[in-house]
Design goal:
70 residues, alpha+beta
Amino acid sequence: MPKLPGINQERAVKAFKKAGFWIARHGKHITMTNGERIITIPGINPVNAFTMGGIVKDAGLSIKEFKKLL
């Protein structure tokens, strides 16, 4: 799997918005959906690489596709 560095929460939210997700709930964690999938981004900065990789996978994107959205 290609390397994915720790990502700032705001950058991750912007990237997922470009992929068609919107914010469904905002608290300590941000919950986003595209109407089909639901992802949760933790409210820590930076979100570590392992966690971010799992979120990207849950969103149905590849690491390469996600990096292009950043």
